[in-house]
Every structure is written in structure tokens, then in C-alpha cells.
Amino acid sequence: MFSLQETIRPSADLRNHYNEISKQCHEDNLAVIITVNGRGDTVSLSYEEYGRMKSRLELLEILAEADEDVRSGRVAPIQDTFDDLRAMLKEGKF
């Protein structure tokens, strides 16, 4: 299961301790929550973690759409799907 650890830092730390925050994101694999006036404002992640998180969200959206298709009866035999894909590949649509 995916679990990203978090830490909380005030916005002043972003200016005064950026390198430390960057290290927390990269080496410690933490999401750093930046606060303004004691309230959560932004989150800092390593670029790699952002990419992984984005990929997971995109996959979840695809799975949710597929689940909705099944619930709504928008399904087809798998052989029809493969035949359609083969035809599209032959036509150069990919």
C-alpha cells in the first residue's frame, strides 16, 4: 500500500532552509507541508515522487472509468477488442 510520510514546516523555512527541505523531500522521501499563518498552504515533493503520484492517479482514473463501463454494461468480448486493436495498428492509428 502507498503511504507517503509528511512533515510540516512554516513558510519562512522555505526561504531560510530550502536545502534542508529539499533533502527531506529527496533523501527522506517526505512530503513537506508548508504552512502560512499556521494553516496548510502548499506541499513540496521530490520531482520523482510527484511523477510516481501522478502516474498512480492517472491509473486510478482509468480503473474508475473501466469500473463505470462495467457497471453500465458498456463491455465487449475481449476478442472483439483485440481485433479492433489489430485493425487500428495495421491502419497506423497508433
> What is the overall pLDDT average?
94
- Approximately how much helix is present in the residues? 55-70%
- Total number of domains: 1
Order of helices and strands: EHHEEHH
Please, what is the CATH homologous superfamily? Answer: YefM-like domain
At the third CATH level, what is the topology name?
YefM-like fold
Assigned CATH class: Alpha Beta
Overall form: elongated
Category by helix and strand content: alpha+beta
Distance between the termini: 33 Å
Structural account:
- By secondary structure, the chain is α+β, with helices and mostly antiparallel strands.
- It contains 4 helices and 3 strands, in the order βααββαα.
- It has helices at 11-16, 18-26, 47-71, 78-90, and strands at residues 5-10, 30-36, 39-44.
- The protein is elongated.
- The two termini are 33 Å apart.
- The model has no long low-confidence stretch (mean pLDDT 94).
Q: Any descriptors?
A:
94 residues; alpha+beta; YefM-like fold; three-stranded mixed β-sheet; 4 helices; 3 strands; elongated
Overview in brief:
The chain is of the alpha+beta class. Helices cover 56% and strands 20% of the residues. The longest helix is centred in the middle third of the chain and has 25 residues, at 47-71.
Indicate the topology.
Layout: E1 5-10, H1 11-16, H2 18-26, E2 30-36, E3 39-44, H3 47-71, H4 78-90
Parallel strand pairs: 1-2
Antiparallel strand pairs: 2-3
